[in-house]
Amino acid sequence: MSYKYLKNKKLNKTIAKKRIEKLFKLAEEKAFSNKLSLADRYVELARKISMRYRVSIPREFRRKFCKNCYRYLQPGVNARVRLTSGKLVIYCRNCREFTRIPIKNRR
Question: Could you give phi then psi for residue 79, rounded to 5 degrees?
């Protein structure tokens, strides 16, 4: 690693988080305008930035792409979302994989 990266490590991480957020916003816009290939590319770039700077992708964005094929998921177009027995089940129609997310009971 270069000295410049080590010197501004905290600054680089904050910039990386902002870029990841912006890329996911752009991916959402492109997905709604039926340009899923661009949305997939933005997800790929966001993942590369998060790995490069060791920044985790926020939960709200993590659920918007498939963990198997890394495609942007848009419910009704290339994803199916169901609630079954206390779990949120997201089915990717591209790679045919399920993602199961437990839902906590709020009392």
Answer: -145, 150
